Amino acid sequence: MENESYTAASIIVPLRAQAVEQREILRLNRLLETIPAGFEVIIVDDGSEPTVRRYIRNIVEQRRLQGQVVRGVYLRTRHRRFSLARARNRGARAARSPVVLFHDVDFLALTKVYQRLLIHIREVELATRPEHFFCVPVAFLTEEGTEHFLTHFEASEEAWCFRKRHNHPHERMNFLVQGSSCIVTNRDDLLAMGGHDEGFKGHGAEDFELLHRLSCQYPIAPRPPEYTRNMGSGPITEYRGFRAYFALYGEECRQQGCTLVHLWHPKRTEKGYYRHKQNFKRLQAVMERDVGKVCSLKNGGRSQIDPRKLLEVY
After folding, report:
1. What pTM, to 2 d.p., does this model score?
2. Beta partners for 8?
3. Among the listed residues 207, 290, 192, the one whose alpha carbon sits nearest the alpha carbon of residue 249
4. Does residue 243 or residue 301 have the better pLDDT?
5. Which overall architecture, per CATH, does domain 9-293 show?
6. CA 248: distance to chain centroid?
7. Average model confidence (pLDDT) for the chain?
């Protein structure tokens, strides 16, 4: 088995499922088959049904016997509301690599994209330079786009390259998020600042709150006008609002060809999963509290990005 001390980064994958036939389990298996050596994979089972938990334990053991560095973290939270913030925090604490990457079970890319990502993590020296944290851009596909992508994926072909944002086929992609929840950061630095805020329940805005704190520690550019405003998930056409600011942290990664896709799925029906109204209200309160504060200058010489370049190709 590969020596776990040689993994450059830990990929944290939270999930909860009620049955082994669910889409999430299929996508987990595909993801495990795709991620290359150099990564540790930590599956955080946040309260799945016992049959699912046993199944995940079995596939973890099988992958380990095949030499993959993968571990399971099992939370006794079946009777509590699912929490991405909680699951991501538990995964980060369990990680044994110096860098952690938060990865939804619906994200995917070819193996060579993850290999580019490993190279990028090493080039920016994130294991020792926490100021170089970044986001991996994620293209949210339509149902048609997901079918198209998976057809090419099975043939080990990149359906299209995301280095030029203005060339995206709109019938196949809803939108591109550069400042995504796929945050890549120094593990010790993340734990020192408390990780994700577990006051955010279910799904929605917990990633933006973490990006807000990280960006206050390590600013990449002057904040835009109306920084606390949520401009929506559509294309960024002006440097305004927090989404435009956080998108700067994914710009370099996109240029390296490291964009992931989010595979389409029907809207989840679990009670309490989507809490966008409550969570974005909480996010705005946090941002408005901090907006008058001067950001730290602990960027350690990190290159500043001109926000105008972000808009040139949208």
Report:
1. 0.91
2. none
3. 207
4. 243
5. Alpha-Beta Complex (3.90)
6. 15
7. 89
